[in-house]
Specification:
The protein is built from nine helices and eleven strands. The chain has helices at about 1-45, 50-95, 100-130, 175-180, 185-190, 260-265, 265-280, 300-310, 325-330; strands at about 130-140, 145-155, 165-170, 200-205, 205-215, 225-230, 245, 250-255, 290-295, 315-320, 335-340. InterPro entries: ADH-like_N, ER, GroES-like_sf, NAD(P)-bd_dom_sf, YIM1/Zinc_Alcohol_DH_Fams.
Length: about 350
Amino acid sequence: MDEISFRISNHLERLQVQTSLVIQQGQQWISMFLTNCQRYIRELYRDQHVQHIKDIIYNLITYIQKCLEQLRFQYYSIHINSVQFYRQLVTIFNNEVTRREIIFCLAGITIGTLIGYSIGRNWIYYSHHMHHIKAVICHHYIGIEGVSMIDDAEMPMIKKNNDLLIQVKAASVNVVDTKICSGYSKAYRRLLNSGRHKEIPVILGRDCSGIVIDIGQSVINFDIGDEVFLAVPSWAPGTMAEYIVVPETLVIKRPKRCTYEIAASIPYSGCMAWDALVNKSVIKEGNAKGQRVLIYGGNTPVGCILIQLVKLWGGYVVTVSRQNAVPVMRALGADEISLFNI
């Protein structure tokens, strides 16, 4: 066993020395290449003669070809040495090896694999944190004048075991977003997000659809690659960003017949419509048939869903809407439409 370890360590040291030499030479070549590129570019900008420009380009191409040839030679040299090393390694193991030695070898490979996997997982989180994303934010509570789009928002990270990291494909605008720009829920936001998120700026958007790209350790209902849609409360970070992290309890899988855009328009308004109709009123699925239901503001997102629910349950819908929304109200099934002007 000592002889095997000695030979393996000897070959590994040789391979390590060769690799370090190639890396050093590669760094030198890259540094020289960048220096020459800068020099050629400076000459290109200073000289206006066409022939001289052609000479500079030709010299640059020639230099690149030489660098590639040198790198290719070093690659094949390392490749040949590696093949020879593995052949010698096979020759060594053709000799008698005890069961105990094999177990120790497999244990070392397993432990190394687990350590590498752990490092890789941590590096994924670190790399996510280092990147920035685009987002639509409210930077001051002064109404819609405080809305802007930025490209340096912090990349969200999974911090809890039941969190999902979702790549947003579509997000919708709700009336509550305009209220948030004027300070709506800022007290809840200050209290509930203390120590986790800044109160300002606020990412807007309350619902979205997208694809799950990472999951927490205790997530059981979703896998990476699932297409989902969701809604978040008014005090939570919004959905108008390239990525969002939310608990799995706020997420459901997207129906195949719904596009990302359609799915993104349903969750927040749908939850409000369901809560108003089922939890707050006396209209239920079992007793709505034949009842006259007045829906004020039928042209709003919540109103559109309310009309469809009442009609689905057999009710008679009377709605108040704008003139330009009358065709939509009729298409949704409204029985009577009254107009109002603002």
